[in-house]
Specification:
D-Maltodextrin-Binding Protein, domain 2, five-stranded mixed sheet, 299 residues, 12 strands, alpha/beta, 49% helix, 12 helices, Arc Repressor Mutant, subunit A
């Protein structure tokens, strides 16, 4: 049985108001139209819903039974409308975002702190994945947005740049004191090289730089986490490649020193990525606008 939901809405207001005239005022519908809707609903259901009197209307037993169910339905509809309104003003909603450990620590978390302060009711679901894994989650529709570093195949994605990053060779001061030659061939043959694992996007970028510049270097230490590389370099175990923007404190304190290798590794970009063919939630759009505004201010 298919019944126009508008008929149930009219029934609900008449039952609540116990008056056709008051229901008419609330619904901005004429009294004859209200009466016609009630009669139509009664004819479809094959029962009488109201008994009319000089004081208004009262529900029949059947009307009371129907009203209990319609009241629940109207309450659910009202709740749904309220949730949508809260989402529209970012009082409620969910963002699913993925980023690598390094980007989480140095980029995402600082922006999340200020975003959550402004939007405390937005739920954040975070995934700690590499750039390649983040793109896979986007393809599967599991996350809304990702924070990634280039390069990657961006044909299916929208990419919003947040900042430039520079991969640089670094080591601790004591380790580097015995090495003053800037010739790349001597440099890589004379030192212990520590790099990220081969499937990491930063490692692939460094490997490509080496190939293009005819540099042959086999890392003796391969680690899956850049923060661990930082600590190993500070201990003096060897030379590594780190993102300069993320080790400013170590460079200022002198616990790490940058080596000027010629040619230097070209700059690349970090940014927000999302699928071109999947709509973003209002909460995700708001977060993107927030992180962009913060990046502009800090830049």
């Amino acid at each position: 049985m298919k019944i126009d939901m508008e008929l149930y809405k009219v029934f609900y207001f008449v039952a609540e108001c116990k008056s056709i005239s008051r229901a008419s005022e609330k619904l901005y519908i004429s009294q004859p139209a209200i009466s016609k809707s009630i009669k139509k609903l009664e004819d479809i259901l094959g029962i009488q819903l109201f008994v009319r009197s000089s004081k208004g209307v009262r529900m029949t037993n059947e009307g009371n039974i129907l009203f209990e169910h319609v009241k629940k339905a109207m309450s659910e509809l009202s709740l749904g409308e309220n949730i949508i309104e809260k989402i529209k003003v970012n009082e409620f909603g969910t963002i699913k975002i993925s980023a690598s450990t390094t980007l989480c620590k140095h980029v995402l978390i600082p922006h999340l702190k200020s975003f959550i302060h402004i939007n405390p009711h937005v739920k954040i679901h975070m995934f700690n994945k590499s750039t390649y894994e983040t793109l896979k989650l986007l393809d599967e529709g599991i996350i809304d947005i990702g924070l990634v570093s280039q390069p990657f195949d961006g044909r299916d994605y929208s990419f919003i740049k947040l900042m430039d990053i520079h991969d640089v060779f670094v080591g601790c001061r004591d380790y580097l004191n015995s090495f003053n030659n800037s010739n790349a061939d001597d440099f890589f043959s004379s030192n212990t090289i520590m790099l990220l694992e081969e499937d990491n996007i930063t490692r692939k970028y460094v490997d490509r730089y080496m190939v293009l510049n005819n540099i042959s270097a086999k890392p003796e230490i391969e680690i899956g986490n850049m923060d661990i590389l930082i600590e190993l370099a500070k201990l003096g175990l060897g030379i590594t490649v780190l993102i300069k923007e993320f080790i400013q404190e170590e460079l200022r304190a002198g616990t790490l020193s940058e080596l000027k290798i010629t040619p230097s590794i070209p700059a690349r970009e970090i940014g927000i990525v999302y699928r071109n063919d999947l709509p973003l939630s209002i909460a995700a759009q708001t977060f993107i606008e927030h992180i962009i505004s913060k990046a502009v201010v800090s830049g």
